[in-house]
C-alpha cells in the first residue's frame, strides 16, 4: 500500500514546514503567546493567503476541496511548530459545523470570511457538568416568535476570547442528556447578552467561559434542522479527533528528534549521554511509541477516506494510544533533558503541555477506551 503524500499534499507540508522554520522560531512564538490576543493576526492572514484555511472546505464553498489526509498534513506540521493561531477551533470545529449543517446562504456568508481570514470562529459546547458527554446540555434556546431566546453558559470555549462568531450547542427540546432536541445556532460573539471570562490554558491556548443571558436570535441563526444537531456534531467530532491525533503525532516526532539530538551533545563523565545503553533503550521505546501512533493514525485515515463511520472504533483506539504513548514520550523527553526540561525558556515542556491538553480534549484515554468497547460490541 502506498502511504506517500500526493504532490499537492507534499507542497502544503513543505509550505508549513518553511513557515515554522523561517517565521515561527521559539522566541517569536513566546512573544505571540505573551501578546494581548495570544495569537498573531498577521500570521492568520498569511495562512489565509497561502490557502491553508481553505483546505478542508469543498470547492463549491470556495475551498480547496481537501480530504481528511490533507487536513492531517496541516495539523501534523502545525503541531511540530506548536502553532497557536486558532486553526483547530476556527477551521476544524466552527468551519466544519457550518460546512455540514449550514444552508447555502449560511455557508456562503460565513465560510467565505473564514477562508479569507476575516472571521475567527469558535464552537461553544462544553458545560460545567458535561465533562466529555457533549449531549449533556443545559443551555436552552426557547422559541420566541420567529426567533429564539438563548440562555445558559459554555465553558472552556477554544478561541472564545478572540472569536467573532460562535456556533452554540443548545437544547430546544428533550431532557438534559438527550441527543434528540439539540440544535446549533450561529451567534455574534459581541451580541447583547453575551459576556465572556477569558483566560489562557497551560498550553497557551486562549479560551473563554461564555454566558448567554436572554440573547435574542432570529430564525436565520438556526444552523441545520431544529433538534437534529447530534449527528452533525458527531461527524465533526470524529474528524476533529483525527486532526488532534495528527497534531499529537507531529509533536511526538519532534520531541523524539529534539531529545535524540540532545543526548548526542550533552556530556557526562566525559562522554555523550547518548552512548549510555540504558538511555539508548529508553529512546528506542520512545521511537517505537511514536511509530505505533503514526501507524494507527494511517489506519484511521485510510478507513475514514473510505467511510468516516466505519473508522469509529479505530479513532477511539487511536485516541487511547495517543494518550498512552504521548505520556511516555514527553516523560522521557523531560527526564533526559533534566531539570531544564520543564523550564519556560526551553520548548520541551511546552510540547508536553500541548500533548496534555490534546489528551484532555474531546475525551481522555479512559473515556475513549470505554467508547471503543461500546463500538466494538455494537458492531459484533
From TrEMBL:
Family note: Belongs to the acyl-CoA dehydrogenase family.
Keyword Flavoprotein: yes
UniProt cross-references to InterPro entries, sorted A to Z: Acyl-CoA_Oxase/DH_mid-dom, Acyl-CoA_Oxase/DH_mid-dom_sf, AcylCo_DH-like_C, AcylCo_DH/oxidase_C, AcylCoA_DH/ox_N, AcylCoA_DH/ox_N_sf, AcylCoA_DH/oxidase_NM_dom_sf
Name of the protein: Pimeloyl-CoA dehydrogenase small subunit
Species of origin: Candidatus Paraluminiphilus aquimaris
Pfam families listed in its UniProt record: Acyl-CoA_dh_1 (PF00441), Acyl-CoA_dh_M (PF02770), Acyl-CoA_dh_N (PF02771)
Coiled-coil segments on the chain, per record: none
Positions of the Acyl-CoA oxidase/dehydrogenase middle domain: 122-215
Keywords in alphabetical order: FAD, Flavoprotein, Oxidoreductase
The Acyl-CoA dehydrogenase/oxidase C-terminal domain, residue ranges: 242-363
Acyl-CoA dehydrogenase/oxidase N-terminal domain location: 6-118
Record keyword Hydrolase present: no
Cofactor needs: FAD
